[in-house]
Design a protein that fits this description.
The complex is a heterotrimer.
Chain A: H1 13-16, H2 20-45, H3 47-50, E1 62-68, H4 74-81, E2 85-90, E3 92-101, H5 103-110, E4 115-120
Antiparallel strand pairs in A: 1-3, 1-4, 2-3
Chain B: H1 2-5, H2 15-25, H3 28-50, H4 60-72, H5 75-106, H6 109-124, H7 131-138, H8 142-166, H9 170-178, H10 183-221, H11 226-235, H12 239-272
Helix pairs in contact in B: 4-12, 5-8, 5-10, 5-11, 6-8, 7-8, 8-10, 9-10, 10-11, 10-12, 11-12
Chain C: H1 2-23, H2 26-43, H3 53-65, H4 68-100, H5 102-117, H6 124-131, H7 135-160, H8 163-171, H9 176-213, H10 219-228, H11 232-264, H12 266-274
The chains are: A alpha+beta, B mainly alpha, C mainly alpha.
């Protein structure tokens, strides 16, 4: 089909975006946004459920235990260790001891979707 | 015309198959899914029948399990997000820098002629060839991958912007000038729309090169991204992860190329593509 | 009187203008060399970061003379020829089959689009298990890249040959093979050659990437090994050679082939386009 046959050739730009090509672009952008930002939004939405009640609204660095629902890999070790001083495991491989986690880092930890929960360290 | 109504000599399927095929064509979704369903079936058959060990080939089921595992553990989301983010930033910077320079060069006949051969030469030295040098300069970091992808994208974008501007007949600009249009209006009403189809073609071509350069760079830099995922999985012989990674890479590229860039290309050509040769 | 003087001047001016025009493409290269030389003389950066032009030239010269560079180039080009040769052959044959049978083409199209999206370097981790690190791996990566591009273009070319021409040969008594040889093949050739040209471009880039990751020899391996020793001069020399080969391949191999074959069947091309 030539350029002259394209329905958009006779229309204004606003009409173009509602056509087949415009729909494709919309779907494509939505998919990419979902992949890039979806997990972050999900994590942010469910953040409160992860933090133990005693840790919410912390104003000074705390020592916490980060608990995962599965056996972690090197990938997870690296990500978690960035938020505080790693102090070994708490009995099981999926429980990390982190010392001196600032309130900001605590908030970010809570927003990670694959973290199960964050408990205070005794 | 009798010739136009003559049966097509290129379609050679026997009658019944042609009818079935015609019915299938009416369901576009099925048309896209059926070949992949057959592919998965063949894949499964090869694994089962060929008795290949797991360190060479895994079954579709194993690959699916690995996919679920990687998604629920947040691995795929982060690696895919890293790759797409680098690609997006590189595209933005390449367009922001390449298009204006391409314009500036394109309006001058001598500058365009001078730069043409140089740009072709740079395009021949693929971004990936500069990777060892980039590693020496920037280390094993995201900066390295970003620089390589920007280089890979900016050359075709610059080149195509230049070509696009050169293809605009001077009479268009002169006509608007004679009506008293300012420089700015010339750019927005003549040069930009006129060069836009060519720019988008350059972007599409650049994305084809750039996506592959990104994966290759991630394989070597190993600081996240889908290339890191599949190459790292190789070290541990996790073929299921490699295959999941490959499929994700393919799907993401198709989404970006066919659902975003190609429609943009169609729109710009339809709206302003009167000047294409 | 004045007319004569003008006539005397114009030819000379035109020659100078023409010469300047032809030399213009060399200007960016000259500028880069100039800035590079001056910059190095002024700033004296670390040789590992940016070597002087003389170092790079010396690397090229010595390695050309002791035969190392030619052998690396030969290794890379051999892989390219092998992989691209098989890729073009399989791509054209496959493309013809798919192009002639519409249902096959429509069935295969989504698969081809998908495999084209992952063509080349993406197969590397998987195929290392099958083929190990070496020439076989690189050849596979190139075949993969070239095949899908040539296949797609061949299918397009075959499908676009107007039926009118095919039927013309049929009415004159030509068989199927004759139709293919005298009508479809020439008609599809421009598209096939576009595919070959594009495929070789992608294939060369994929080869360098494959050699970077792991190969016993070749240009890609040469520049990657040099990074270990921080020999930027070897890296830059290698990159320049890679770029030169890419340009040479395109200008002196592919464009002449394209010109000769399309010019020979120019009539078919025109009719094809008009329909």
């Amino acid at each position: 089909m030539t350029a002259a046959d394209h329905p958009a050739a006779h229309g204004r730009p606003s009409r173009l975006l509602l056509g087949r090509d415009g729909r494709k672009i919309a779907i494509g952008v939505v998919l990419i946004v979902l992949v890039v930002f979806g997990p972050k939004f999900y994590g942010m939405a469910t953040a409160n459920g992860r933090l133990d009640s005693t840790l919410r609204g912390a104003v000074e660095p705390r020592n916490v235990i980060v608990v995962l629902d599965f056996m972690p890999e090197r990938f997870h070790n690296e990500r978690i260790a960035a938020y505080g001083t790693f102090a070994g495991r708490d009995g099981a491989l999926n429980r990390y001891r982190l010392r001196g986690v600032s309130p900001e880092n605590l908030r970010q930890l809570a927003e990670i979707p694959w973290v199960a929960r964050i408990e205070p360290m005794q | 015309m009798s010739l136009a109504s003559a049966p097509s000599v290129t379609a050679k399927s026997p009658g019944s198959a042609a009818g079935f095929g015609a019915a299938l064509q009416n369901l576009t979704g099925l048309r896209i899914l059926l070949p992949f369903a057959v592919l998965v079936a063949v894949w499964w058959a090869i694994k089962a029948g060929g008795d290949f060990p797991d360190n060479l080939l895994v079954s579709p089921l194993q690959a699916w399990n690995a996919f679920v595992h990687l998604v629920s553990h947040g691995v795929i989301a982060e690696y895919a997000s890293t790759s797409l983010t680098v690609l997006g930033i590189a595209a933005f910077i390449s367009l922001a820098v390449g298009v204006p320079i391409g314009f500036a060069v394109g309006v001058n006949r001598y500058a365009a002629h001078a730069l043409e051969g140089f740009l072709r030469f740079l395009q021949g030295i693929s971004g990936i060839a500069w990777l060892p040098l980039a590693i020496i300069w920037f280390g094993f970091s995201h900066t390295t991958t970003l620089v390589i992808v920007i280089y890979t994208l900016i050359v075709p974008i610059l080149f195509n912007t230049m070509v696009g501007v050169r293809a605009i007949p001077e009479s268009y600009a002169l006509a608007l000038r004679s009506l008293g249009a300012s420089r700015l209006r010339l750019v927005t009403d003549v040069y930009l729309p006129g060069a836009l189809p060519s720019i988008v073609v350059g972007l599409r071509l650049g994305m084809g090169y750039g996506w592959r350069a990104l994966i290759a760079a991630e394989m070597l830099v190993r600081k996240g991204g889908l290339g890191d995922l599949i190459f790292g999985a190789r070290t541990f012989g996790q073929i299921d992860r490699i295959m999941v990674g490959m499929i994700v890479i393919g799907c993401l590229y198709i989404v970006v190329d066919r659902l975003i860039i190609q429609p943009i290309e169609n729109l710009t050509v339809a709206r302003w593509g009167l000047l294409r040769k | 009187m004045s007319l004569r003087i003008t006539n005397l001047r114009l030819p000379r001016l035109r020659n100078v203008g023409g010469l300047a025009w032809r030399l213009l493409p060399a200007l960016p290269f000259a500028l880069v060399l100039l800035v590079w030389t001056l910059g190095w003389a002024a700033l004296h950066p670390n040789k590992a970061t940016l070597p002087p032009v003389s170092d790079v030239i010396e690397v090229i010269w010595t390695r050309l003379r002791d035969g190392e560079l030619p052998s690396q180039i030969a290794a890379s080009l051999t892989r390219l020829c092998l992989g691209a040769g098989v890729g073009i052959l399989t791509g054209v044959i496959g493309g013809f089959i798919a192009g002639l049978y519409r249902n096959v083409a429509e069935f295969l199209n989504p698969l081809v689009v998908f495999f084209n999206a992952i063509s080349g370097i993406v197969w590397l981790p998987l195929m290392i298990g099958w083929l190990g690190i070496g020439t076989a791996l690189a050849v596979f990566v190139i075949w993969n890249t070239v095949f899908f591009i040539v296949f797609q273009n061949t299918v397009l070319g075959v499908q676009l040959v107007p039926e009118v021409l095919e039927q013309g040969v049929r009415t004159l008594g030509g068989g199927r093979l004759e139709t293919i040889r005298s009508v479809i093949l020439p008609g599809a050739l421009p598209y096939i050659l576009t595919g070959v040209r594009s495929g070789l471009g992608f294939g060369w880039r994929a080869l360098i990437a494959a050699e970077l990751v792991g190969a016993p020899d070749g240009l890609g391996q040469m520049i990657f090994a040099a990074a270990d020793y921080h020999r930027s001069d070897i890296i830059i020399a290698g990159c320049l050679i890679i770029g030169t080969i890419a340009i040479a391949m395109d200008r002196w191999l592919l464009i002449p082939i394209e010109r000769r074959t399309i010019a020979r069947w120019g009539l078919v091309l025109d009719t094809g386009r008009k329909s």
